[in-house]
């Protein structure tokens, strides 16, 4: 099951489960749309895979299967992509 991480790994912006501004790679590395486009060029910096928009989990499903609250943040992301 998708983790639905709570933030962008690159800029630490909050990405609530209902946002359409979140993108993920196949390993669920999670970024905001701005970082994905402007910093990462649509490619996950961790695994080299493509980033696609994270699907919205419907509210009823979210109640049964809550989003992750574990923040993942990699401050080197922006520097590496420079
Ligand atoms: Zn970001
Ligand atoms: Zn990745």
Would you give an account of this structure?
- InterPro entries: DUF1272.
- Pfam families: DUF1272.
- This is DUF1272 domain-containing protein.
- It is a single chain.
- The protein has 82 residues and is α+β, with helices and mostly antiparallel strands.
- The chain has one domain.
- The protein is built from three helices and three strands; from the N terminus they run E-E-H-E-H-H.
- The chain has a three-stranded antiparallel β-sheet with strand order 2-1-3.
- Strand 1 and strand 2 form a beta hairpin.
- The longest helix has 7 residues.
- The chain is globular, with a radius of gyration of 12 Å.
- The relative contact order is 0.29.
- The model has no long low-confidence stretch (mean pLDDT 95).
- Bound molecules: zinc ion (2 copies).
- The site of one zinc ion has 8 residues, from strand 2 and helix 1.
- One zinc ion binds next to loops.
Strand content: 5-15%
Main β-sheet, spatial strand arrangement? 2-1-3
Number of helices: 3
Shape: globular
Mean pLDDT, to the nearest integer, reads 95
Ligand kinds:
zinc ion
Task: Look at the helices and sheets and give the structural class.
Answer: alpha+beta
For the termini, the CA-CA separation is: 32 Å
Can you count the beta strands?
3
For the sheet with most strands, the description reads:
3 strands, antiparallel
Element order: H for helix, E for strand:
EEHEHH
| Radius of gyration, CA atoms, in whole angstroms | 12 Å
Helix content: 10-25%
Protein name: DUF1272 domain-containing protein
InterPro entries: DUF1272
Pfam families: DUF1272
